[in-house]
Amino acid sequence: MSNKNAEIKTVTYYGTKQYFKEIDERTKEVIKDSSFKTKLKREKVIHNGNATIVILDDNSKGVSKCCPLDEYNKTKGIKIAYIRAKIKSLQKELKTLVK
Question: What pTM was computed for the model?
Fold first, then answer.
């Protein structure tokens, strides 16, 4: 993308602690109460005109484009592009597991 008006940024998610509980559905008793730490993630976000591109760590890319007659919304554009990139990333991961 060589558009001079394109907004390019890198978003970094630092490792965070995720808490979870395993609960027995019959007795409603807590089986396990634990946590795990998520790894650092980086995403590149590019806004160019009415398009948004998200590129994940594994180079999976998602693109969202706004219809020329609609009003551009950056937040929706990022969400749509991110989900499309994540789907591609998960498809790559699934291929490695199925082999």
Answer: 0.71
